[in-house]
């Protein structure tokens, strides 16, 4: 791995450590303050604090890089951009369910748009963390020095495969409910694990495919580099390997074309 990517990956872990400390301090707090965004999704004071903390660290240590976050949007410009999702799975977080994570990724300009080159997904309430850097592989563990390499499964037929997603409502709102139901009937098993955990289990080889029609860049960028570095395939619904297209289709690679056929059908 190039030295600069090694430094960036280590720094991403430092950012994730800071985020974990704040998020865990607020998780299940009796005085957790919750308000509503205009789209009626919940946001906590802890989420805002995490994003401000990470942005401050980036300004000091990576002043030339842009930063994109849900709270304050895009700050700066340039060929590299850090994407911060302070709490993926916010609905779980505010209800005391431990399936949530902070996602931190680094993107760089490439032909066709930005591509993720570093990604860290940290789920401290599950005591789990996953990470990857381009051309270096994907890993999970407690730290960089104590990690296991990730590898996707070898299942080659959808009828033998497991499929994961976030919510049925998203498929209905996107006009793809029939696609989702057709696929669900034909695969071996379906489960709703959520915006990040599905992709991490795919990278681990525990499940074989997953998709979501509506995701933000913060939900996708870290997932994309971790899945692909584990040997999988991550695309938009049009098959383009672009992690910021608004929807994600991911698989172990062997199932991808067949999976896309199901999801791209229109009545």
From TrEMBL:
<dbReference type="Pfam" id="PF00459">
    <property type="entry name" value="Inositol_P"/>
</dbReference>
<protein>
    <submittedName>
        <fullName>Histidinol-phosphatase</fullName>
        <ecNumber>3.1.3.15</ecNumber>
    </submittedName>
</protein>
<keyword id="KW-0378">Hydrolase</keyword>
<dbReference type="InterPro" id="IPR000760">
    <property type="entry name" value="Inositol_monophosphatase-like"/>
</dbReference>
<dbReference type="GO" id="GO:0004401">
    <property type="term" value="F:histidinol-phosphatase activity"/>
</dbReference>
